[in-house]
Amino acid sequence: MFASSSSSSSRCSSIPIMEVEEEEQIHGISELPNELLIRILIFLPVEEIARAKLVSKAWKNLSEFSFVPPLTFEQHRHCNGTISSFLDSIDSSLKLHYQRGLSLSRIRLCLDLDLIGSSRSQIDSWIDATLERKVEQLDLCFLSDSIINYYSLPARVFAAGTITILCLEGFRFEIRGNIDLPALRKFCLRHSRCDEQSVPKLISSCQLIQDLEISCCKPWQKIHVSELARTIRDLRLEECRLTIYGDTNIDLPALRKLSLRNIRCDEEAIRKLISSCPLIQDLEICSCYGKQGLHVSGLVNLQRLTVVCCYALQIIEIDAPTLQYLDYRHGARRCDLVLTCCEFLRELILYDRFVTQDLLQNLLSGLPNLERLEINDTPLQRIEISHRQLKRLDLTLITVPILVKIDTPNLQSFTYDGHRMPFVSAISSLNTSSLQELGLCFFNYNVCSHFFALQLKEFFGKMRHQTDMKLHLHIRSKLELITPTKLRPILSPPVYNIKHLILTIYECRRHQYIIDRILWMCHPHILSISRGTNARFLKVIYKKFMNKEQHPKCCTACQVKCWRHYLEEVQIDCDESMSKIERTIAMSESSNIVIVMKFEVRFRLKWRPQLL
User: Fold this and answer.
1) Would the pLDDT of 35 be above 80?
2) Number of DSSP helices (H) and strands (E) in the chain, helices first
3) What integer is the mean pLDDT of 537-547?
4) Distance CA 443, CA 575 (A)
5) pTM here?
6) What confidence score (pLDDT) does residue 162 get?
7) For residue 101, is it left (φ>0), alpha (ψ between -120 and 50) or beta?
8) Are 378 and 397 in contact (CB under 8 A)?
9) 113, 235, 338, 526: least CB-packed within 10 angstroms?
C-alpha cells in the first residue's frame, strides 16, 4: 500500500566522444549560434567548460577566450572552509586571469571584514587586479558590525574608464580626487558612511547614469534633484533628504521608475518631481515625511503605484487612466482615497483599518476590470463584494464579521486569514462557480474545537459543486479539530472534489487528531505537508499511513466511517530522498525544540469508491 515514486533510474556519467557527435546531429547543437553557446557556457565553472570543449565540436570551434564566466566570491559568517582558504581562492582566480590575459567583465565580492582581520590589505590588490583586467561590472559588499572597519575605495576606482556598473555596500564612501567614469550607467550605494560632498559630487560628474540607488547611508544624504542626469530611467532613494530649490527646472525626461522610501521633503517637492516626469511607469512612495496630501495626475504611462506608511497623509487623489496596479497601506489615521479615471486597474491591495463598506463599494463600482482584490487589517463587520470580473480575493480580518456576501462568478482564488472563519452561518451567499483554489488560515487560541470542526466541514460542503479544487489550510493555533463520536452517525460524507490539499500545521497541541479530522472532512487526491510545518506533524502522518491496516476494524457502529476504510493506497512524492524525510522525523522525536520542515512532502492518495 505504501510506496515511493522517486525515480530509481540513473544515467551513465561518461559518454564516448563519437556518441556525443551523433547526439549533436540529432539535437542540432552544432547549429546553434556562437552567441547562444557562449550564453550557455558562461554559467559553467572553468573545469566544466574545458570538458565541454573536449567532447563537442561546437564548443571546440569557439575562440579560446571568447567567453569568460563572471567571478563571484561570497563569504558567509559560518562557511565550511577556513578564512585563509577563501582568501587564497580569490588570489588564485585573479592570478589565473592575469596569466592567461583574460578580460574580466564582472566580479562580485562579498566579505565579512570583521573576520578577515589583517588580511584586509589584500583587498586593495584585488581591486587593482580587476581594474587592470578592464572590469566592467564591479559589485562589492563588505559587511562589518563596526564603523571603524568600514573600507574606503582606492581613488583609481573613480577613474576607471571601463566600469559601467558600480555597486557598493558597507563602505566608507569618500572621494578625494577627480571623478572620471565616462562609461558608468548604474550606481548603487547601500548602508555606507559618507561625507557631505562625495555622493553629490559623483552624481553631478556622471551625466550618463541610467540607474541610480542611494539607500540607507549615514548621515542622510542630501539629493539635489536639479543635479540628476537627464538619462536616468530608474531612481531609488531611501533615507535621504530630497531638495528642490525654488523655481528650479526639473529635467528627467527618461525617468520610468521612481522609488522614494523614508524620504524627508516637503509636499511641494514630491508634487513637482512627479509632475515633471510624465513618462513614469512605476511609482513607489513609502514612509515619506512632511506630506499631508498626495495628488497623482498627468502621468500618461503610469502602470504601478505603491503608497505605504505615509502616516501624515490625509487625502490621496489618483487620476491615472493607464494604472493597472495599486498597493495602498496606511492605517495609522483616517485618509481619504479618491480614484478617478482608473477603469483599467486590475490589482488593488488595501491595508487600512479605516476602510468602510461604503468606500469599498464605491471603489469597486468604478473599477470594472478589477481582477485581484486584497483587503488586510480591517475591522469590517459587514462585507459585501459583488464583481463580475474579479478572479482573486484575499481577506485578512482582525474581527469576526457578522455578514459576508461574495457574488463573484469568475472568482478562481479565495483566501481568508483571521482568528475565526465566517462560515456558513455568516456567509449568506457565495457565488463562486469558477473557484479553483481556496486558502484558509487560522490564528486563534480560544476557538471551541467541536463547533469549529463542524463549521469547517459544512463550509467544505458548500464547495461540492466545484471540480478539482486546490485547498490551502494553515493552522497556527492550539485548537484541536476533535469531533465527538456521538455526532458522527448524523454527519454528511466527506468532500471528494478537493484535488490538492496543502497543510501548514505549526502550533497545534495534539497532532494525531489533526489528520484524522481533516481526512474525515475531505478526501483529497494529493495531500502536501508544506515548508514551515512542525516536523512532529510529519512524523504523525507518516506513521499513520505506514501503519494503516488493509482491513480496519474501527468505526463498526458508525454510519460515516473514518478515512482508514476508504484509503486504498498511499504514494510519497517528494523532491528529497526518503532518508532525509526519516532523518527529519528522527530529529523531531529527539529534540525538545520545534523542528520546522524546510521542504515539502506530497502524499498521493488513492481512495476506494465504496467502503470495505
Assistant:
1) no
2) 14, 32
3) 87
4) 30
5) 0.79
6) 94
7) left
8) yes
9) 338
Q: Is the pLDDT of residue 27 over 90?
A: no
Measured CA to CA, the distance from residue 146 to residue 117 in angstroms comes to 12
* Residue that wins the pLDDT comparison between 193 and 435: 193
Task: Please give the pLDDT value at position 430.
Answer: 62
Paired strand residues for 464: none
C-alpha cell of residue 61? 570551434
Beta-carbon neighbour count of residue 421 at 10 Å?
A: 22
Mean pLDDT within 207-215: 96
pLDDT at 53 exceeding the cut of 70? no
CA dist., res. 126 & res. 90, Å (int): 8
Higher pLDDT, 3 or 406: 406
Residue 38 has a pLDDT of 58
Q: Which of 497, 375, 376 is nearest to 436 (CA)?
A: 497
Q: Are 473 and 501 in contact (CB under 8 A)?
A: yes
Q: Could you check whether the bond before residue 219 is cis, i.e. omega within 30 degrees of 0?
A: yes
More confident residue, 401 or 122: 122
Beta bridge partners of 74: 110
Sign of the dihedral defined by the CA atoms of residues 307, 308, 313, 314, in that order: positive
Would you say 381 and 404 are in contact if contact means Cβ atoms under 8 Å apart? no
Instruction: Say if CB 110 and CB 141 are below 8 A apart.
Output: yes
What beta strand segments (E) does 287-391 contain? Answer: 293-297, 304-308, 315-319, 325-329, 336-340, 347-351, 372-378, 382-386
List, in sequence order, every beta strand (DSSP E) within 27-122: 71-74, 106-112
Whole-angstrom CA distances from 365 to 304, 348, 370 are 20, 13, 10
574: left (phi over 0), alpha (psi -120 to 50) or beta: beta
pLDDT at 288 over 50: yes
Q: Which residues make beta-bridge pairs with 73?
A: 109
Rounded CA gap, 501 and 602, in Å? 10
pLDDT-above-90 percentage for the chain: 27
pLDDT of residue 26: 38
Give the DSSP per-residue string, 178-193: ----TT--EEEEES-E
Please choose, from the candidates 59, 70, 56, the residue with its C-alpha nearest in 3D space to the C-alpha of residue 23. 56
**Average pLDDT value over all residues in the chain:** 79
Contact status, residue 441 vs residue 409, Cβ threshold 8 Å? no
DSSP per-residue string spanning 239-293:
SEEEE--TTPPP--TT--EEEEES-B--HHHHHHHHHT-TT--EEEEES-BS-SE
Question: How far, in Å, are 228, 262, 268, 287, 309 from residue 242 at the CA level?
Answer: 12, 11, 11, 14, 18
Reduce the DSSP state of residue 165 to 3 states and report it.
strand
Residue closest to 421 by CA, chosen among 372, 460, 467, 374: 460
Amino acid at 251: D
pLDDT in tens, 143-155: 888 888 899 999 9
Which amino acid type is present at position 244?
I
Indicate the range of 165-179, 225-239, 352-366 predicted with least confidence: 352-366
Alpha-helical (H) ranges within 435-510 are 449-462
